[in-house]
Amino acid sequence: MPRHNGYATYSTWRVKVDVFKDFDLDDWCLDMLDSVELAGWMRDHTREIIEEDAGEGIARLYAKLFLADVDWQELAQTARDEYAANNDQQELDL
Fold first, then answer.
1. What local confidence, expressed as pLDDT, does residue 57 receive?
2. What angle do CA 12, 38, 62 make, to 5 degrees?
3. Which residues, including other chains, have CB under 8 Å from residue 34's CB and lie 6 or more apart?
4. Rounded to whole angstroms, how far apart are CA atoms 68 and 32?
5. Suppose 39 and one of 12, 14, 63, 72 were both cysteines; which one would form an S-S bond, judging by CB atoms 3.0 to 4.6 Å apart?
6. In this predicted model, what pLDDT tens digit does every residue of 56-94 receive, in sequence order?
């Protein structure tokens, strides 16, 4: 299956660059979450942005459909790996 700038799907990559480009676990106090919990938080956070920014109608519908293809676990693991690398850790304890 083709990769999209290193990510499993185009939508995963777009959410990474558009929502979590400068994402830092410390800024959000999320460094204590495991990757499953973090993936859920990232999904919910992105959905909240859409709910706040997109009015009712087809644009919101398409945005939500786009999110259905995001690999949230991949985003969470990437965030945790980047955090570990930036904090001179081999891996997070969780």
1. 85
2. 35
3. 94
4. 26
5. 72
6. 888 888 888 999 999 999 999 988 888 888 776 555 554
Cα 40-41-44 angle, rounded to 5 deg: 85
**Residue 45 pLDDT > 60:** yes
CB 60 within 8 A of CB 54: yes
What pTM did the predictor assign?
0.80
Query: CA–CA separation, 51 vs 84, rounded Å?
Result: 31
pLDDT cut 90: percent of the chain above it: 39
**Which H helix or E strand runs over 60?**
helix 58-67
**How far apart, in whole angstroms, are the C-alpha atoms of residue 61 and residue 84?**
36
CA atoms within 13 A on the CB side of 90: 1
